[in-house]
Here is the input.
Amino acid sequence: METETTAINIITDGTRIKGDIVATGDFRLDGVLEGNIQLNGKLVVGDSGVVNGNVLCQNANIIGTVNGNLSVKELLSLHTTARVRGDILINKLSIEPGAAFSGKCRMIDEVRAQHEAEQPEAENGQE
Here is the structure.
């Protein structure tokens, strides 16, 4: 039986973590994470927050910095002060003026359609 958690994990400014984080709830990072983060909930990277690693989550609000690839299943919001260096894979994207993004951006539906288009070719090659 799965239970939903309403708990929000918070890493405050001045805290530095080395290692990967896996969580089922929402997560707010105002410190520094040297590692990957995987959530079933929403990630908020606050103004002083820095992620040096890859991110996989349902939704994300980036106000601080992410140095790594982002994979967001629903909505990624890049706020004015956001700095992202890495590729992103998203369903929906919101970028405020002033946000900085360096990398490739792909939509989940585009990737899914490309994968489906490549499948028949692979199957035909095996006959």
Remarks:
- The chain has a mean pLDDT of 89.
- The helical segments are 108-125.
